[in-house]
């Protein structure tokens, strides 16, 4: 399961990678996963922090019910 999570997180990094000739803007990105469609029972999630660190907890990528938040990090 850990390997599957690492691969999925690496795939998420692709949109945030630097494109030749484009400025790289660090982005905060957060996903929270829920066991139900009403999104009342959080079961896990991950956060991609502005410093590049990734924090995960619980069950991730095991349900179609999730929320996403992202914004540009302050310079």
Number of strands: 4
Strand-pairing-aware structural class: alpha+beta
Point out poorly predicted stretches.
14-22
End-to-end separation: 35 Å
The residue-averaged pLDDT reads 78
In which range does the helix fraction lie? 10-25%
Instruction: Determine the strand fraction and express it as a percent band.
Output: 35-45%
Give the tags:
75 residues, alpha+beta, 4-stranded antiparallel β-sheet, 4 strands
Outline:
By secondary structure, the protein is an alpha+beta fold. The protein is built from one helix and four strands.
Structure description:
About 12% of the residues have low confidence. The longest helix has 12 residues. The protein is 16% helix and 36% strand. Strand 2 and strand 3 form a beta hairpin. The chain has 1 helix and 4 strands; from the N terminus they run H-E-E-E-E. The chain has a 4-stranded antiparallel sheet, with no helix packed on it. With 75 residues, it is of the alpha+beta class.
Element layout with pairings:
Elements: H1 2-13, E1 27-34, E2 42-48, E3 54-58, E4 66-72
Antiparallel strand pairs: 1-2, 1-4, 2-3
């Amino acid at each position: 399961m850990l390997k599957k999570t690492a691969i999925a997180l690496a795939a998420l990094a692709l949109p945030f990678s630097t494109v030749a000739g484009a400025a790289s803007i660090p982005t905060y990105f957060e996903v929270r996963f829920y066991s139900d469609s009403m999104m009342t029972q959080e079961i896990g999630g991950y956060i991609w922090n502005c410093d590049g660190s990734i924090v995960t907890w619980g069950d991730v990528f095991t349900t179609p019910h999730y929320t996403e938040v992202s914004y540009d990090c302050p310079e």
